[in-house]
Predict the structure.
Amino acid sequence: MAKTLREVIKETVHYHLKKKKGFVFGQCLTAVGWVGGTLPHLTEKDGMIDLSMADVANGGIVAGAALSNRRPIYVIRYQGFSWFNAPIILNYACKSKEIWGIPSPIMIRGIAMEGSIGPVAGSSHNSIYYKMPGIKIISPMTPSEYKYAYKYFMKNDDVVYVSEHRGSYDNKDELKDFLPADCDLILFAISITRFEAFKVKKKLEKKGYKIGIANILWIKPFKIKDKWISSLKKSKYGGVVLDDDYSKGVASDIAYRLMKMSGKKIEIMGLKDKSAGFSKETDNLPPNSKEIIKMISKITKRKK
Amino acid sequence: MTNNSNFRYQVFKKASLARNFEEEVIANVKNKNIKIPVYVSAGQEFIASTIATICEIKKIKPLLFGQHRCHSTYLTFGGDKTKLIDELLEKKTGCTKGMGGSASIHSKKINMYGHDGLMGSNGPIGVGACYATKKPTIIFLGDAAAEEDYVLGALGWASTKNLPLLVIVEDNNYSILTEKKIRRNWEMSDVARAFKMKGFNLDDNPMNIYKYSKYFFKQPCLLNINTNRIYWHAGAGKDSEKTFDRYKSEKKLLGIEANLIDRKTKQLIKKLWQKRLEK
């Protein structure tokens, strides 16, 4: 029976601690939920280390631990907490190999979720990391993508930001690109929006549209597949980049690069440019299938 | 217990290396051979010299986490002089291949890790390295860097984990030209004690520092060492000529032999600089 992504992450962490003698650092790791069920029930003796609540210092402590070659995994329970956790990682760990020839490899597990969690904790925040040198960003949403991300981390000396989303933890399926020869439009989807993209495809198929889907796994470096560009060039209406982060960041940059390579118009949809509140009315959520269909409808009308 | 007089001479030798090196740095800034900002440790060199001598006596090779004003740490713990000169001259043969400049020097040979330029980030990074390796570790901070919130958070955790960590605060009383009393009403030694670490406030007399060496690396320990800088931030100016100078005072106390050490070291350093400048 296929495993959920949650089970795969838990097994990966167990393997890292027990077989690779690595570290896992974070806040409240051993609390009730064991960070959404992705951590094995191990202790400091096994390398699973609960840090204090000093977020900025904690990022530095993990960067220092990484100098020892024990390859820490650093759990950031809400991606928005990266505002405090990222500074020393980005300015020291990410630059250490280039400046001093001493790598400080860290796998950061940044976990996103949304809905009624206010202005900081919600959503993905890949853009905080994106512009800085020396970091890789990957957003696995399936079991095999996660295994690949971990293998990459263990084989290289980089700081890898693994942009997770709690909404994907129950997923057992692999998400493949869907790029028929005569697409009307292609959705370039990141993180949790990948699931919405498939919903959109299904709904619009019934109305006679052929919607292509390109799954963005690697955010930095942004790995553009030849097939994406050739399909984009042949498409009627270009594409839309979907993101779970504010749209004026990673999504804009990716759209620019796709436009440059294909000559087609690319729209972006991400979080709105507003603070999120706790109530339903004031929340700031990633684009859902209904909103994406609305945007596609606008694009197709504009072209006509 | 080490022989007092021998110990003082050993410390003075190291201090002499650091002081004469820094005087040559300043001379080369003035004549424009050095074109990058430099952060000299002149005036504060007895701290690193004493700690390095104690480590030699104890046969301990600690992990070192310094920041700017750390030439004396590099030199007194045995960093390659030529490579530091080359670094300041922006050469690829420098200790950080010209990338680190004065503030981000490092040396694998002496376990000295480079600094990224964020004041006090070496605090948490040193704590993390100490936790992961359980090796004796020294973090050198200035009195301003010690105020960074992440330094305090890291010290609290180091104490909780009872790490073999020595934190040295080189307290020259200034952040650029802002005095400590304007910035805060507390001492780092009190903060350390509040965190249940060993915490002491003292001056940079080598014998005073030596007194506390019994605590080194057995438990987390912080020494706030009051000292005086000779040159301002980035060598932009100089404090009053009346500022107490430990180097002059020790040289006077140790007499002829110290004068000889000073003279020989000065010549050695001058020659070394000339040689590198000619290359």
